[in-house]
């Protein structure tokens, strides 16, 4: 069909746009019903101490098995949940559910929950954290909230105020995916995070001896140490990455090498074994 044809444009460009919008509309339709249909589950991924390899926490990761769409990746449905603000009730659900589950773990093991900007800016957020803690009985210091740098873009002052309320309760606040967003050291001066999570891309780079990744991790660890913040390396998959990250002095490690995100039964099972087994390479 010729481009000059009046209606050609219409037929050339719109079908894919339309298909995309239609897919999104259907996904949203299903997402609106997912909570009441009990389609969400939580996968727990262990975070271990870099020296002792003992489990220090689990990160709670949302999983959606949709009746209409099957398993949908968080990379796809989390942004949609954020755009539609469905992340507010869904986020409250995972917060309550994971605090409740953490009560089944040894009392030194924390739970980390991801929180989007939409949730932080919701006026009821702090109250929902208080509610999740009091209903479950989980001490505040066993809950860590994970946020990304993106929360500081829209309304940094409000986001910071809410995070400070959460920290005043005794909860930790981790800065997730550090180095991938609109990195600014400005908010590190204003806010004392509990932990900085170094993004997997730097971990991979360091293991390949990329000078930039090595230098950045070294600098982040030094800065975190002197500001009394902990560091977690994300996405450690191989022995080589583990050794490099250890050498660089990251305090905690998360990644397939030690454990993939798993169901609550399997997560609980890690504590009944005599010693924690690495399971990444084979899993
Ligand atoms: P995140 O918070 O950075 O979580 C870590 C992601 O890296 C998880 O992906 C995890 O499965 C994956 N991962 C962990 N270790 C490795 C590894 O060794 N190699 C590789 N290749 N990947 C690894 P997942 O579960 O698909 O979640 C993706 C993102 O979705 C999360 O990134 C987080 O930003 C968001 N998310 C997940 N659950 C929630 C939630 O309940 N609320 C909100 N607001 N966001 C969530
Ligand atoms: Mg996270
Ligand atoms: Mg992360
Ligand atoms: Mg990451």
TrEMBL record:
Residues 24-275 form the EAL domain. It comes from the Bacteria. Coiled coil: none annotated. This is Bifunctional diguanylate cyclase/phosphodiesterase. It comes from Novosphingobium tardum.
